[in-house]
Design goal:
CATH topology: Spore Coat Polysaccharide Biosynthesis Protein SpsA, Chain A
Helix content: 40-55%
Number of domains: 1
Distance between the termini: 55 Å
Structural class: alpha/beta
Radius of gyration: 24 Å
CATH class: Alpha Beta
Shape: globular
Strand content: 5-15%
Number of helices: 15
Largest sheet: 8 strands, mixed
Strand order of the largest sheet: 3-2-1-4-7-6-8-5
Length: 438
């Protein structure tokens, strides 16, 4: 047998296995979309008001930190005497500390000359250590970024969840600048998908929420137990969530509590953000997957497998950008098209014969149509259901984003693939409300 045929057969077997592995997480995401009709979880209103500490790490955030702190004090529908705001000014060379103090926050200044520690996790670690050292008894904490805004009922809603027994929770994540341009419309819809579809279904099916990023709530009993903050990776929020799950803590989703953040408004900013996420989460996945699989069996908890499948999209992006196009170019264009096989050999390998090219064109059109229709349907459904939470007054303000939703999926795949070959680091990206550290 011609060695080209043997190689083709081996690669085809590998490709078929990879297609199955790629398909499993996609099926899960489609399931989340099809179950959009499930009612949201609403925690019972509590008359008991717990004491809250708000933790905000900040690096050169003088343009936004004052507004963020003042909004909390002036707009939260929660007793003012029951919450304090702490800002950790981390290696700042501007007036972040001064403006945070003027707005009413307690400021901890952290100047660390070690460049390896110039990431947000060390600011959080230091901040929680200082809060514990004050001796003030807080019931739970809320972590925010320096540019975040939250809805007026945010603290009350998190308090309701806490009083209902929730120890760790994430909010609904939305955007401050969803309608800024076509890029932010598509980008915002992509990231909102996880809040409106995935997170709601996880909560209703008793799976753990993915608690990462701004607005997360944590029981201070957990912080005391672990002695502060026990993760220092570039994606410390994801690692913190995984560690607590491994300890048996259940993680929840408080849908009516909304945090608004400033979205990247260009390809360059999205690339910087996604490169950090991909590089950090890929390393976390490699580190924790064995333990998560074991605990899935030990605790009879599907949430571990679901999180592995979700974070596996990082590697799926890599395959979609590299292996998949390379395999089909090789199999059809190179072997059959360049004449490395005789007609009989090509027919035996299944890459030749009457109608091959027509069949490939039809398959390509069908797959492309499925990609476009599925993507656009997701975007349109999000717009129809949650346009108000996304900062729009009318649905038509976001409709163009729904039609660009598939295009952003391509951008997401490309930038995540680049991240796999990047060294995790904390870089500054341009934000609309100033330069925000990521």
């Amino acid at each position: 047998m011609n060695w080209h045929v043997t190689l083709y057969n081996v690669l085809t077997t590998v490709n078929n296995v990879l297609l199955i592995l790629i398909g499993i997480p996609f099926i899960l995401q489609f399931l989340y979309m099809f179950l959009f009709w499930l009612p949201k979880k609403v925690f019972p209103k509590s008359d008991v008001k717990k004491r809250i500490c708000v933790v905000i790490p900040a690096h050169n955030e003088e343009d936004v930190i004052g507004t963020t702190v003042r909004r909390l004090f002036e707009q939260q529908q929660y007793p003012r005497e029951l919450f304090d705001v702490y800002v950790i000014a981390h290696n700042c060379t501007d007036r972040t500390a001064e403006r945070a103090r003027n707005a009413g926050a307690t400021v901890f200044v952290l100047d660390d000359p070690d460049p390896k520690r110039h990431i947000v996790s060390y600011a959080l670690k230091y901040g929680y250590e200082q809060i514990l050292a004050t001796g003030i008894e807080y019931d739970f904490s809320i972590r925010l970024d320096a540019d975040n805004h939250v809805n007026d009922e945010f603290f009350s809603l998190m308090n309701d969840a806490f009083c209902a027994g929730v120890q760790i929770a994430r909010p609904y994540e939305s955007a401050l600048n969803m309608t800024q341009n076509q890029f932010t419309r598509a980008c915002g819809l992509y990231y909102t998908f996880d809040s409106r579809f995935s997170s709601r279904v996880r909560e209703r099916l008793h799976m753990d929420a993915h608690v990462n990023g701004p607005g997360s709530m944590t029981d201070m009993a957990i912080i005391k137990k672990i002695g502060g903050y026990d993760t220092v990776s570039i994606v410390e929020d994801t690692e913190f969530n995984i560690k607590r799950m491994l300890e048996g803590v259940r993680c929840h989703f408080v849908e009516d509590a909304v945090v608004y953040e400033d979205l990247p408004s260009s390809f360059r900013d999205t690339k910087n953000r996604n490169k950090r996420i991909a590089a950090g989460n890929a390393r976390l996945l490699a580190r924790y997957t064995p333990r998560m699989c074991w605990n899935s069996l030990k605790q009879l908890r599907f949430s571990f497998i679901e999180q592995i499948l979700t974070y596996a999209f990082i590697f799926i992006c890599f395959l979609l950008c590299t292996w998949i196009p390379a395999y089909y170019i090789y199999a059809v264009g190179y072997l059959a098209g360049m004449g490395f096989l005789t007609n009989a050999q090509a027919a035996a390998a299944g890459i030749s014969g009457p109608g091959l090219w027509q069949l490939l064109i039809i398959i390509g059109i069908c797959l492309g149509a499925l990609f476009l229709v599925a993507g656009i349907c997701q975007g349109l459904l999000l717009v129809m259901l949650d346009y108000k939470k996304m900062g729009a007054e009318r649905r038509r303000e976001l409709l163009s984003g729904a039609f660009l939703f598939p295009a952003f999926t391509v951008v997401y795949c490309l930038t995540m693939t680049l991240g796999l070959f990047s060294k995790p680091k904390w870089v500054k990206i341009n934000r609309n409300t100033g330069n925000i550290s990521e």
